[in-house]
Amino acid sequence: MGEALPVPQPSQPLLNKDILRGITGSKEVRYCREDAAAYADRWWKDGNPEFEVFEVDCTNYVSQCLFAGGAPINYTGKRETGWWYKGYNGAQEWWSFSWAVSDSLQRYLSAGRSSGLRAETVERADQLMLGDIIQYDWDGNGHYQHSTIVTAFDAAGQPLVNARTVSSRHRFWDYRDSYAWTDRTAYRFFHINDYL
What we know:
By secondary structure, this protein is α+β, with helices and mostly antiparallel strands. The chain has 5 helices and 8 strands. A 6-stranded antiparallel beta sheet has the order 3-8-4-5-6-7. The protein has a two-stranded antiparallel ribbon with strand order 1-2. A hairpin with a 5-residue loop joins β5 and β6. The longest helix has 11 residues.
């Protein structure tokens, strides 16, 4: 008779340990834009093995960058709410839609909240800073299909972005050179709050 194998346990949500240290002191944590951009530059081409790599991976990648910059997980256990990632439990996906789906992240960042990952919508790309987010609605129908993160600036001060799915590093933000771009493309510019 064989030895009984341990029962697999569900994975726990990822937690940013720097955030946890901050919980006992101040309520807010400073968003480290440089860390978010450094992570983006480290993992723009190949996925971090700590996370799943999705077939359409842009928003998963951007969420990882935000997390690396100190954005706190908002774990609800419901895929339709919060902003969180746990990986797989057997064959079941355990992450929020806002972690992995561009339009869901856009809605999450647009919603008002008093703590955690928050952003302000700005009107122009040149108002963004390192570690901010640009999202793209290719056909202008109000549903965002692509997410990028600001990782550098050109000589004119315009943002350069990183993305995955089609891996890009320090690409000009407007994506006019993309096969997906159309004359109906709409942009959403998110300035991530300095304190989360």
